[in-house]
Amino acid sequence: MALVQLKLGDMFDGPADLIVLPCSTSGTITSFVRERLIHHRIPYPKPGMKLGDVSILPFEGGENIAQFVAFAASVQSDSSSPEAIRRIGEQIGAASVERSTIRLISTPLLGAGAGKLPSEAVVSALSSGFKNTAHRDARLVVHVLHKAVFDRLSREPVTHAYSTNVSGPSEPSEPAIRVFMSYSHTSAEHEQWVENLGRFLRENGIDARLDIWHLRRGMDLPQFMTNELVLANRVVIVSDDRYAAKADGRVGGVGWETMIIQGNVAQQPPESTKYLVIVRSPNVDSGLPHYLKTKFVIHWPDGMTDERNRQTLIRELYNLIAAPPILSRPVFI
User: Fold this and answer.
1) pLDDT per residue over 27-64, tens digit each?
2) Burial, 245: exposed, middle or buried (Cβ in 10 Å; 0-12, 13-18, 19+)?
């Protein structure tokens, strides 16, 4: 089920699918939000929103931050209400159902500043509204700027339910493994094969992310790829001769992804398994870009190995591959 988590820090410090900004019903914003709007060239909110309304729009130029930005009318005449915050939670939760692109949502303590609501009431109302409508794999991260407030909220007994299953605090839940699939548009047949693999992963509980499903017209391509790669728990690279050529030549979308991936790979520890490579070419060496030639890969050329390789991939993504246990030593006489 959907999760709500607390996090100490500025929500602009890390990537998300949707970032929520507070405003008043008259369209005014705090100086903190104004600085972010100017820096990231975000258009100002329009006046005339009702208390508890949410307006979502593409985040153009917000590379490394989010694909969408929302304005939440959390204040009216220097006041707010838990009911308004709950409505905001419901609307951003519903956005994760309406848009498969949105799974990770970042928000501040809406209504706790100018709205004068207690922080505890804000978190409770946001959590209640969000969980009522959100996609089962969605996650709302409530960012708290001040450590004293964060420590106080963390000590509250009720906050133990924020990161748990909505059915009860005794049933912890985890969001689906988020997997970004990087591939080249080699041919219609290849694209269909990748799409079928993505469908298979989603049918088996994995949040597979593909450009054909999650990239919308008008979205910034480098921003989309950056966000997806950073937010992914695992990245599946489907490589073939064309992918290798594009990666080595830094051509097109694969070229952009290669630059981002190489930087991220360099930051991973040697034992990291974040990047998993599938080679579709008959010859493994020709189907790999130079920077991936040291990787242990799944060789998956056309043939009758789909079911076996699908099971191998699933077990890798769920970390289910383990050595047999070491049993008792034999008795020597």
Assistant:
1) 888 877 788 777 777 777 888 899 999 999 877 655 55
2) middle
